[in-house]
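pls ignore typos typing on phone
HQG + seq
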Amino acid sequence: MGKFISFILRHEPKKIGLNLDENGWADVDDLIQKSVMNNVNFTKKDLEEIVDTNEKKRYSFNEDQTKIRANQGHSISINMEFKSVCPPEYLYHGTVVKFLPSINEKGIQKMSRQFVHLSVDESTALKVGCRHGKTVVLTICSNQIYKDGIIFHCSENGVWLTDYVDIKCIFKE
Ligand code: HQG
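k done
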């Protein structure tokens, strides 16, 4: 169910005929109804449990719990109204060995997502990277990038987001 919600709220709401507003919010009743019509059955209580217990805090309700959205990770174009924030000196990007030649040539790109995703610590980055294969954690000189005028955001669930990381900003010992 978590995977389904993630897919719908981040990538393909149209798959079940759901509309997200410009800030990524879906109407909770509409989401439940359209999911049921597509043979995915859950209740509002199930959604509340997912929002509360998801280990990465991937989703949030609005104040009166009539709307839900993913906190980050979108490939569809929505405006999360993220503020620009000063990042810590270093952030981490978990990737895999097979992507390194391309990253070394082109830098870290957002690929299919709205942003490049960066982690606050190495162990989180390791978990992100291992989804794709043999993991490598890259240390990013985030504060340096910020000083160069590049904007950073931090999502509700603590994932750092930016547009692009140039290879010169990947820390090498
Ligand atoms: C790589 C999960 C070749 C990049 C995670 C990554 C995260 C390049 C892959 C969130 C490249 C994209 C996002 C280049 C970047 N050449 N490969 N120039 N630049 N890449 O899944 O960061 O669990 O879109 O290193 O926890 O892995 O779903 O991004 O390996 O927070 O909540 O291209 O997804 O969140 O992969 O993960 P992804 P990501 P959830």
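The pocket of HQG is lined by residues 56, 58, 73, 95-96, 99, 102-103, 106, 108-109, 111-113, 117, 128, 132, 159 (CB under 6 Å). The mean pLDDT is 96. more later
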